[in-house]
Amino acid sequence: MGRTDYFHDPAAPQPNAIKVAVSAVVLDESGRILMIRRTDNDLYAIPGGGLEAGETVSQAVAREVLEETGIRVEVTDLVGVFSNPDHVIAYDDGEVRQEFSICFRARPTGGSLRTSEESKEVLWVTPGALDSLDVHPSITLRIKRALDAAAPYFT
């Protein structure tokens, strides 16, 4: 299913849903960031996805990172809660979602890089190389907050 991200766009459709999502800035021992290239919009992003019934947000982070990248992680702390009503995500099935993502820092504990149905590329990226990738501004904000801020961010 494809998606279109609208960010501070007056032509964006009105949201008809909010779903709890999680994401993770996974940093390896060298300080590189685990990134995916999404299959639904062709943008680079940190791994993440929706919370499922019966799991904690930490379990959802670990599951989503493993599903999308092949890397097992341990959640270490909270980056922040990102709930920008000016970031609207429209899906091909008619759902139009307002952004709501709880972002965490995590460290890899095992596994090996692999792609999935949601990721057509998985790679470790140095922070200095992020500018060479097509990354949505909302993801750039999460990464910046994970690298720079000590206190959790929220809107």
Account of the protein in words:
- This protein is α/β, with parallel strands linked by helices and 155 residues long.
- The protein has one domain: Nucleoside Triphosphate Pyrophosphohydrolase (Alpha-Beta Complex).
- It contains two helices and twelve strands.
- The chain has helices at 57-69, 137-148; strands at residues 3-7, 17-18, 21-26, 33-38, 44-45, 48-50, 71-82, 87-91, 96-98, 101-111, 119-125, 153-154.
- A five-stranded mixed β-sheet has the order 6-3-10-7-12, with helices on both faces.
- Strand 8 (87-91) and strand 9 form a beta hairpin.
Class from secondary-structure proportions: alpha/beta
Largest sheet: spatial strand order: 6-3-10-7-12
Beta-strand portion reads 35-45%
Total count of domains: 1
- In the CATH scheme, the class would be Alpha Beta
Please tally the helical runs, counting DSSP H or I stretches of 4 or more residues: 2
